[in-house]
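Retro notes (design track)

What went well: tokenization of the new backbones is finally stable.
What didn't: we kept losing track of which sequence belonged to which structure.
Fix going forward: every design gets posted as structure first, then sequence, in one message. First example under the new rule, 192 residues:
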């Protein structure tokens, strides 16, 4: 009879996600994962497969985490403008004092050029963000909050590009005041 798992799968997956997020894929060894996840190597393989498969699952875990947090943040906004501002604020403030940036952005620059599966996950996450922004922009255009001379998808692509830049800068020592100035300037294009 096989041994039962002595760990909560979601908890140890989140620990792996955090380590990949902090160190990146290449720098994270199997020994690092085993130690950080506090599980045996055999349990890691039996539950998650190899390091690459674990990384793909960690990216999915990150996506779910960000989606849940973002949805809870924008749930209480009353206007499209407040919701978009909330998204930018979330991206700036999310890491607190830990400059980790974004696991999707980090993975895009580290792995996507040579790993098709990671590239697909990153591009899908980018598409979801652009769809969310486009939906909010359309809402703001319909309610008269935002100008209408630009297509919502084009504006969403532009704002998403700014979000990507902010997430890259968030990984550096750039201060939040600078990131907020960039945000304010980028969001000004929406105003009437």
């Amino acid at each position: 009879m096989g041994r039962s798992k002595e760990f909560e799968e979601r908890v140890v997956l989140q620990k792996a996600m955090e380590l990949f997020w902090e160190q990146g894929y290449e720098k994270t060894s199997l020994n690092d994962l085993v130690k950080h996840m506090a599980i045996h190597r055999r349990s890691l393989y039996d539950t998650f497969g190899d390091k690459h498969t674990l990384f793909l699952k960690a990216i999915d875990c990150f996506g779910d985490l960000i989606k849940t947090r973002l949805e809870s943040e924008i749930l209480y906004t009353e206007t499209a403008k407040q919701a978009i501002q909330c998204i930018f604020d979330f991206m700036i403030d999310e890491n607190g004092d830990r400059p980790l940036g974004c696991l999707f952005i980090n993975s895009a620059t580290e792995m996507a050029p040579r790993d098709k599966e990671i590239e697909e996950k990153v591009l899908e996450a980018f598409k979801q963000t652009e769809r969310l922004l486009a939906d909010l922009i359309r809402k703001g255009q319909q309610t008269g909050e935002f100008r209408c001379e630009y297509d919502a998808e084009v504006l969403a692509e532009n704002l998403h590009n700014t979000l990507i830049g902010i997430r890259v800068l968030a990984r550096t020592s750039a201060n939040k005041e600078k990131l907020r100035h960039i945000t304010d300037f980028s969001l000004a294009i929406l105003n009437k």
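Added context from the reviewer: The radius of gyration is 19 Å.
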